[in-house]
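Please review this one.

:::
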Amino acid sequence: MRDPWSELGPVATIIETALAEDLASGDVTGRATVGPEVRARAHMVAKANLVVAGLQVAEAVFRRVEPGVGFAAYVRDGARVAVGTEIACIEGPAQALLAAERTALNLLQRMSGVATLTRAYVDAAGGRCRITDTRKTMPGLRALDRYAVRCGGGHNHRNDLGAAVLIKENHVRAAGGITAAIEGARKLAPHTMKIECEVTSHEELREALAAGADIIMLDNMDDAAVREAVAIAAGKAILEVSGGVGLERIAAVAQLGIDVISVGRLTHSVPAADISLLFERVDGTWA
């Protein structure tokens, strides 16, 4: 699994923003109930079967609050774990652990939720096509969401509006048609960049092929329409299916001969993974 710190430029900013939000006035409960001399050990445990993502991010949260905290990860990002598995153990001043736990868990649970759902889609596709995310990420958390998708075995679509040409319905309307939009993109885009165009019908598909689109997104087509689109394209463009492809439909769509299925729900409405963090008071130092 890739090291998130080599790819997640905004991670430090994300952590700073999240901690500032939660600790704007400090942790009054932690200070009121636990003395500064008290040390604690916290056990991070999976409460459901899940795919882990974000352990280094969680560790960074604890270390931002208390640099000397001990953090031992027992699995790696991308690992599948069963309910009851201890994922990590953290030890340090109890006040610091209490102050950091919610932020650390919020990020870890979201990332693991994304990775878990992505893995379910990837498994259902059975290697027949690529599963990708979309730009429907949590604002401010795109870098973490995209990393979590990779931890789940998925791939990333374009990172931002400048990363690739993707002509969608409103571009077509504004440009005056599919052909005009593709021709305009061809003039501006560098020769190294592919041009993708969204279509909603076989008529639009034929127009996009004739205009020279490299990738064609079949938007909200049923299985029969996708099957016919594959026959029409006949390998002349990469075909991506998007819109309304739930987990129950993935296996069927993956067998139709398309190349990519993009799934917004991997990040736009994913449930957080169920992970707990339980404390015990300890004496001595981290071993």
Observations:
- The longest strand covers residues 39-46.
- The two ends are 27 Å apart (CA to CA).
